[in-house]
């Protein structure tokens, strides 16, 4: 069986694009099981004119009248809009829902779209793009004189500056000054971020809503346990004007990744528990990422999706 995939390359998040390429290349590899039946995968980044030549069409941000192509299957999203844009979704013209689906990176966003009536137009399903676990991994420096990992990552994105000040004051009170702040607004270099992660003992995350949260997942892939001041509603994004829609900063997470809290007065107790668990080496964040967001796992889910 051959699956020919056309990717309409417009408005696609670069991390999603690179992750999609990795998982498609993984699917093109020969099966490790000698008796397994191989699904042949071909893909191309192209335009609307190529649609008749392919059986799977992925369009992350551009509406297509799918009724013109009854023999193709379509995957849309997640880049149409934060909230369902009913005019765009209606432009898909997919009245029977048999050949199209809309993807969002995580379940809380899927539920948001469903609650706002998106499934009047087409089904919505969660699909996460893979984390580059070959690039984002723990340091392999095994030299006997390698410096200990004693730095603290502070990652700040779209939250009230007063909350960041609250965290810094708290750390100073604990006599912890070996931290560095990576502010999303300042557009730091990825290599700079990766190099610092190699020196970190743990990280502290102050983030608004995330549909996937690559920077957080990349830290976890480097085996960095995290303490997260988790958002509860979308209106916690600083200077934004969202409604108080339920959300999270960590859509992909379990107890092996670290700890989280929601309110300022929960910080001290959560921090103490976090430190205790760090000492007992209770966390295994990279294992969580490998089990849920590796290229191999996402490739399996993508094949099932199509």
Give your account of this protein's structure.
This protein has helices at 14-27, 86-90, 107-115, 161-173, 190-197, 214-221, 267-279, 285-292, 295-305, and strands spanning 2-8, 40-46, 56-59, 73-76, 100-104, 124-126, 151-157, 179-183, 200-207, 226-229, 258-261. It has 306 residues and is of the alpha/beta class. The chain folds into two domains: 2-127, Rossmann fold (3-Layer(aba) Sandwich); 151-292, Glycogen Phosphorylase B (Rossmann fold, 3-Layer(aba) Sandwich). The radius of gyration is 21 Å and the shape is globular.
Mean pLDDT: 93
Q: Which spans have pLDDT < 50 for at least 5 consecutive residues?
A: none
Widest beta sheet: strand line-up: 2-1-3-4-5-6
Distance between the termini: 13 Å
Estimate nothing, just give the exact number of structural domains. Answer: 2
Oligomer: single chain
The CATH superfamily of the largest domain is known as Glycogen Phosphorylase B
* CATH architecture name of the largest domain: 3-Layer(aba) Sandwich
Q: What spatial form do the alpha-carbon principal axes imply?
A: globular
CATH class of the largest domain: Alpha Beta
Kindly state the number of beta strands: 11
Number of helices: 9
User: What is the SS-derived class?
Assistant: alpha/beta
Summarize the helix and strand pattern as letters: EHEEEHEHEEHEHEHEEHHH
β content, as a range? 15-25%
Main sheet summary: 6 strands, parallel
CATH topology of the largest domain: Rossmann fold
């Amino acid at each position: 069986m051959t699956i020919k995939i056309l990717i309409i390359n417009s408005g696609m998040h670069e991390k999603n694009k690179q992750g999609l390429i990795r998982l498609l290349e993984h699917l093109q590899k020969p099966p490790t099981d000698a008796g397994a039946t191989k699904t042949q995968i071909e893909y191309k980044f192209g335009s609307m004119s190529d649609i008749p030549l392919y059986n799977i069409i992925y369009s992350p941000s551009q509406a297509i009248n799918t009724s013109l192509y009854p023999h193709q299957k379509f995957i849309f999203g997640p880049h149409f809009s934060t909230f369902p844009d009913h005019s765009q979704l209606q432009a898909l013209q997919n009245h029977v829902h048999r050949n199209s689906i809309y993807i969002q990176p995580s379940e809380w966003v899927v539920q948001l779209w469903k609650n706002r009536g998106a499934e009047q137009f087409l089904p919505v399903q969660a699909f996460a793009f893979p984390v580059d676990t070959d690039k984002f991994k723990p340091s392999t420096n095994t030299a006997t004189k390698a410096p200990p990992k004693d730095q603290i990552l502070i990652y700040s994105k779209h939250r009230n500056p007063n909350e960041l000040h609250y965290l810094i004051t708290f750390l100073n009170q604990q006599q912890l000054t070996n931290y560095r702040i990576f502010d999303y607004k300042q557009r730091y270099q990825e290599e700079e971020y990766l190099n610092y992660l190699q020196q970190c003992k743990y990280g502290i995350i102050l983030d608004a809503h995330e549909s996937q949260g690559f920077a957080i997942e990349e830290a976890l892939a480097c085996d960095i346990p995290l303490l997260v001041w988790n958002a509860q509603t979308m209106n916690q994004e600083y200077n934004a004007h969202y409604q108080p829609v339920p959300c999270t900063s960590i859509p992909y997470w379990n107890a092996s990744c670290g700890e989280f809290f929601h309110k300022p007065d929960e910080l001290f107790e959560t921090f103490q528990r976090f430190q205790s668990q760090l000492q007992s080496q209770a966390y295994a964040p990279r294992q969580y990422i490998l089990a849920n967001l590796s290229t191999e796992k996402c490739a399996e889910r993508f094949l099932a999706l199509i």
